[in-house]
Amino acid sequence: MLNSKIPAGPLETKWSKYKSTCKLVNPANKRKLEVIIVGTGLAGASAAASLAELGYKVKAFCFQDSPRRAHSIAAQGGINAAKNYQNDGDSTYRLFYDTIKGGDYRAREGNVHRLAEVSGNIIDQCVAQGVPFAREYGGLLSNRSFGGTQVQRTFYAAGQTGQQLLIGAYQALERQVALGNVTMYSRHEMLDIVMIEGKARGIICRNLVNGELERHFGHAVLLCSGGYGNVFYLSTNAMGSNVTAAWKAHKKGAYFANPCFTQIHPTCIPVSGDHQSKLTLMSESLRNDGRIWVPKQAGDPRKPNEIPEEERDYYLERRYPAFGNLVPRDVASRAAKERCDAGYGVGTSKQAVYLDYADAIKRYGKIEAGKKGLSSTDEATIIALGKDVVKEKYGNLFDMYQKITGENPYEVPMRIYPAVHYTMGGLWVDYELMTTVPGLYALGEANFSDHGANRLGASALMQGLADGYFVIPYTIGNYLSDEIHVKPIATDHPAFAETEKQVRERIEQLMNIKGTQTVESFHKRLGKIIWDKCGMARNEQGLKQAIEEVRQLKKEFWSDVRIPGNVNEYNPELDKANRVADFIELGELMCLDALTREESCGGHFREEHQTEEGEALRHDDNFMFVSAWELKNEHDWQLHKEDLNYEVVKPSQRSYK
Amino acid sequence: MEHKHINLKLEVWRQQNSKAKGDFESYEVKDISTEMSFLEMFDVLNERLIKEGKDPIAFDHDCREGICGMCSMYINGRPHGPWEANTTCQLHMRAFNDGDTIVVEPWRANAFPVIKDLVVDRSAFDRIIQAGGYVSVNTGNAVDGNAIPIEKDKADAAFAAAMCIGCGACVAACKNSSAMLFTSAKVSHLALLPQGDPERKSRVVNMIAQMDKEGFGACTNTGACEAVCPKEISISNIARLNAEYLSAGLTS
Question: Which residues of A touch B135 (CB under 8 A)?
Answer without folding.
Answer: 128-130, 171
